[in-house]
Specification:
Chain lengths: 405, 630
């Protein structure tokens, strides 16, 4: 079932380039140079092994007959949800229950949950004879399970990724845009409640857009009232909280408020990247990784090492490769004719893209969210394997694009 | 909708997001690049750990036993190292740090922490002065002042602290230890690590060379350190010092003196002793050999060594006979003619001339072995075992020291495993009855047992900690409730045993008459235990004195020193006389010194939730004796 002519060599090559860049960065991140002496931890060759395993897994996936692949999704999803429940009972590492670890390997169930949830939602919402309302309801019904479980870990960043991929899938499944607007409206109402002018502007804009989209007056009234209510009740609810509860919520959303915890890393990443300047300090020559960092910069903060050592040029090169990669993946959507697969591809693309944005955004200090590794570049076997498999799924769909259901 | 609309949407979003990132990178690296480079190179933004002061240890009269003293330490900032070879040479010349050691420190520690690395602690002031100038060539080295421990006298209960090692650092990952920090390695320092340690603070440093706040973080996020709690022990420094000097020169053994009223330990000595201060510096190979010589100065013989108790064990057997109703106070058992034939084996009494027929009180007085051989032959082994366990001479006492050893008293199951058969155990039992054979006890267990007899058959877990001082006042009961229970003996049993012990030290023919203290009533039991360590017996004496009420219980144990009555009892007598001679001083209530009061007043202001404040200080009301001695 591997079709040489239909295989997307460009997408696969971009994937491999990203993985290689990752290994180079990981090597540097786990190396200390003092004078003439240097010492490297073994992360980089572990990552190479993970990369070989991941690429082989893609090949296996391509060879896997489609019917078997289709059958596997539901049981795997259920097993994954159980793993998400189980991981909450594992003792916390770095303040969160995210990892299962054994024999020096660690597995993060929220990684595989992203891919499996996307595949399951894509299947369910593209069933025939569903009303639009049913599509939205089913999509939400499925996604809310992993989102709630992952928020409990707690991992705000990863939950956010789920929401974005769901929205992308709903759009790809031809759900009219006003549904999306109505879905996100409560969040925007809550955010706007910070200032009364924002509330007024937002509610007016919201109602205007709904009118433009030709909705019935009943629907518009109900949505408007709910959102006004939310915007008004929020400040009362917020002031009802104790100071430490407010602080806890704020820190959850914005870790830089906790400089002795995750916030410290975020600031140090920003300093490291900034100090790289235009051309960078050169490979292995970064100093910040030796000085003030907690020793975990080969995972979520790998971009800070790239930014410091390869400067603006290197950072932009990585950004460009990522952009080409996503552009190419977007190219696949119109090629795939089966609706379920088309929607799944949109979901995969959306979650990979948002994840990249959150991670790099966190490193440069514009997105105050932690817990999301950088695709294909951060050190970590389970994340590399799952993300590669996600690309593998898209490659597989492309490979079988002649088949029309 | 058009087929590629969703692809278009996603591409638009892609462009927006990446343009955003591009812009942020441009601003950070191109526009403000030199600003961040300056911050990075000068290490302007960092977190500094503010070490909490470790709690000190005081005796019952608030006199110091372990205190903190200032020290000078040498730190390495690994990120600033330029020439590791020159640094290695420097450190080797002045501090004897090998090159490999330095490499390990730098390369391994850096993957664990971003802190500076403490290379050498407790550097003398002179060394620091002479080296200060040379440090100009090594910007990566810096002297910092800290604190270290001083142990005011050699002893076996305080233990000592040491630098945290790899293993401990991993094990206590969640506890936020610094790799430069100290951790209790033995004794009370280890047992009460959690109380003593406190919690380090964190300080955010974010000022540039001109002292201007760089404003990366909220400034109010600093965390102040919480200092550790100081311990007040039941130890009395005067008595402790006196007791330590009571050991005959060159002897090996242990002496435990405890307070009958509350079970607190007044003096706790093991000989030969060692000075915990030696662990505060690098230990030279010579010193290490000295500490590991065959006499084993590091061994705490009071609670970590278990020995055959010999005749001091006899009250355990006697009480079982009385409680089981096999004998009463006046029952005469088999006549002693220098021994007793059990099965086809002849068991000798220590006195070859024999004691004739005796009752339990006389048997204790003259320490007749035959009486106990005959008695235990009428008791099933497992009953005797259960009784020994209930007397607290088998299981660990639960004293607040790490590494306590349990005693041993075999039961049928034990013999089955050991011998592979369950034949007649009469011969083994005979030995057990007089504290020989398989029986092993620690001096501490014996001390607690005799204290329980003095208390009227009420056992209290022996312990050091009375309360804490400093940031919060926590009593021993709040830290960990003491195990207290009654033996459940009848008054007649108790009376018979106590009379026997009185006869030992007072009546003619008593083996312990050397335990002679004017003005108080003395009780005691001698023991001369045969053992596998040598031909000469272990000398034992356990005794207590009663003035208006039971005062102190003394256990003296000397390895291979001879007879208990001749060797151990006189030492116990000296200690008891010293105590009685200074009884007013020992019993005088000690007011809490002003400096601690101040500390606690401060603590009151920032009352800690973890350590509930106990209200204004009151002298602890005299604990009413739980049961009057019968």
């Amino acid at each position: 079932m591997f079709n040489r002519k239909k295989f997307d060599w460009v997408l696969a090559s971009l994937l491999i380039i990203l993985i290689v860049m990752g290994c180079i960065a990981i090597y540097s991140a786990s190396t200390t140079i003092i004078g003439k002496h240097h010492s490297t931890q073994n992360h980089w060759w572990k990552q190479i092994i993970f990369a070989i395993i991941s690429l082989s897994a893609i090949l296996l996936l391509l060879k896997l007959p489609m019917p078997i692949f289709d059958i596997l999704i539901v049981p795997l999803f259920i097993a994954n949800m159980l793993a998400l429940i189980g991981v909450l009972f594992v003792p916390a590492a770095h303040g969160a229950h995210r990892w299962f670890s054994f024999l020096g390997l660690s597995y993060q169930p929220s990684e595989s949950a992203k891919l499996l949830s996307v595949l399951l939602v894509a299947r369910v919402i593209t069933k025939e004879n569903l009303t639009e309302l049913q599509q939205v309801a089913y999509g939400f019904g499925i996604m809310v399970v992993p989102i709630v479980l992952i928020l409990m870990e707690p991992d705000f960043g990863t939950s956010l990724v789920f929401v974005f991929s769901l929205l992308a899938m709903l759009i790809a499944a031809d759900v009219p845009f006003y549904y999306i607007l109505i879905i996100v409206s409560p969040v925007l109402s809550i955010v706007s409640s910070l200032h009364w002018i924002a509330v007024v502007v937002w509610i007016l804009l919201f109602v205007y857009l709904l009118i433009r989209m030709g909705l019935s007056w009943v629907t518009i009234t109900i949505c408007g009232v709910i959102n006004v209510f939310l915007a008004l009740i929020m400040p009362i609810f917020w002031n009802g909280l104790k100071a430490y509860q407010q602080e806890r919520i704020l820190t959850f959303i914005d870790p830089t408020r906790d400089p002795l915890g995750a916030g410290y890393q975020i600031i140090q990443a920003k300093i490291a990247i900034g100090s790289g300047g235009f051309a960078g300090k050169g490979w292995l020559m970064g100093t910040q990784k030796n000085m003030n960092f907690l020793p975990e910069h080969h995972t979520d903060f790998i971009f800070s090492v790239i930014g410091e050592e390869f400067g603006f040029l290197g950072s932009v090169l990585v950004l460009t490769v990522f952009a080409l990669f996503f552009w190419r993946m977007a190219h696949a959507i119109p090629e795939i004719k089966v609706k379920e697969r088309k929607v799944a591809t949109a979901g995969i693309l959306a979650y990979l893209m948002i994840q990249t944005f959150i991670n790099i955004g966190m490193n440069v200090g514009i997105v105050p969210v932690t817990g999301v590794p950088l695709l294909f570049i951060s050190y970590g076997g389970s994340s590399l394997l799952i993300n590669s498999l996600a690309v593998g799924v898209v490659l597989k769909y492309l490979n079988e694009r002649g088949f029309i259901k | 909708m058009n087929r590629s609309t969703s692809a278009l949407y996603l591409r638009v979003i892609l462009c927006l997001l990446f343009l955003f990132l591009f812009g942020a990178l441009f601003r950070l690296q191109v526009i403000k690049g030199s600003y961040y480079r300056r911050i990075a190179e000068n290490n302007f933004v960092r977190i500094r750990r503010v070490t909490a002061t470790r709690g000190e240890i005081y005796d019952v009269k608030y006199r110091p036993i372990v205190i903190n003293i200032p020290s000078h330490d040498l730190y390495l900032i690994s990120g600033k190292v330029k020439n590791i070879d020159a640094l290695g040479l420097f450190l080797k010349t002045h501090f004897g740090i090998e090159k490999e050691e330095l490499h390990d420190l730098i390369f391994q520690q850096r993957f664990k922490t971003y802190e500076e690395i403490m290379l050498v602690d407790n550097i003398s002031y002179e060394t620091m002065l002479t080296l200060s100038e040379k440090l100009n060539y090594f910007p990566e080295l810096v002297f910092r002042s800290g604190t270290t421990r001083e142990y005011l006298y050699p002893n076996h209960f305080t233990g000592y602290v040491g630098r945290i090692n790899e293993d401990e650092f991993r094990r206590y990952r969640q506890e936020d230890y610094s790799l430069n920090g100290y951790i209790g390695k033995g004794g009370l320092e280890k047992y009460y690590e959690i109380l003593l340690r406190g919690k380090d603070g964190k300080q955010i440093i974010q000022v540039d060379a001109r002292g201007q706040n760089l404003g990366f973080f909220r400034t109010d996020a600093d965390v102040a350190p919480l200092n550790g709690l100081s311990l007040v022990l039941s130890i009395d420094n005067d008595l402790q010092t006196f007791v330590q000097e009571c050991f005959p020169p060159g002897s090996r053994g242990a002496i435990v003196v405890s307070n009958i009223e509350d079970g607190g330990i007044l003096a706790y000595a093991s000989n030969p002793c060692y000075d915990p201060n030696v662990f505060m510096q690098r230990i030279s190979p010579d010193l290490w050999a000295e500490l590991n010589r065959p006499e084993r100065p590091l061994l705490d013989r009071a609670s970590q060594g278990a020995y055959p108790p010999g005749s001091v064990f006899k009250p355990v057997t006697a009480a079982e006979g009385l409680e089981a109703g096999i004998i009463n106070r006046n029952t005469l058992l088999a006549p002693c003619g220098g021994g007793l034939k059990i099965g086809n084996r002849f068991f000798k009494c220590w006195s070859s001339s024999g004691h004739g027929r005796t009752n339990v009180v006389d048997a204790l007085r003259v320490s007749c072995d035959v009486f106990f051989y005959d008695l235990i032959s009428r008791i099933p082994l497992d009953d005797a075992w259960r009784h020994a366990v209930s007397c607290g001479v088998v299981n660990r006492t639960g004293i607040d020291l790490p590494g306590e050893r349990a005693g041993l008293y075999p039961n049928t199951e034990w013999f089955k495993k050991r011998l592979g058969r369950a034949g007649s155990l009469q011969g083994y039992k005979a030995n057990l009855s007089i504290g020989q054979g398989e029986v092993l006890t620690t001096p501490l267990q014996m001390n607690a047992f005799y204290a329980a007899i003095a208390r009227g058959g009420y056992w209290i877990q022996p312990h050091f900690l009375v309360r804490t001082l400093g940031r919060g006042r926590v009593s021993r009961e709040q830290v960990q409730p003491l195990d207290k229970h009654s033996f459940g003996w009848s008054q007649s049993t108790l009376k018979a045993i106590q009379d026997g012990l009185w006869a030992v030290t007072n009546a003619p023919g008593g083996t312990g008459r050397a335990f002679n203290v004017a003005g108080v009533t003395t009780y005691g039991k001698t023991g001369s235990a045969e053992n596998a360590m040598g031909k000469i017996t272990h000398a034992w004496f356990c005794g207590y004195i009663v003035a208006e009420k039971p005062e102190i219980v003394i256990t003296v144990f000397l390895e291979n020193a001879g007879g208990g009555g001749a060797v151990a009892a006189p030492i116990a007598s000296r200690i008891a006389n010293y105590y009685v001679g200074n009884i007013d001083r020992f019993k005088a209530p000690a007011p809490i010194p002003d400096q601690f009061r101040d500390l606690e007043d401060e603590a009151e202001d920032e009352a800690e939730e973890a350590f509930p404040y106990q209200g204004p200080y009151e002298e602890p009301a005299a604990v009413t004796p739980v049961e009057e001695a019968g």
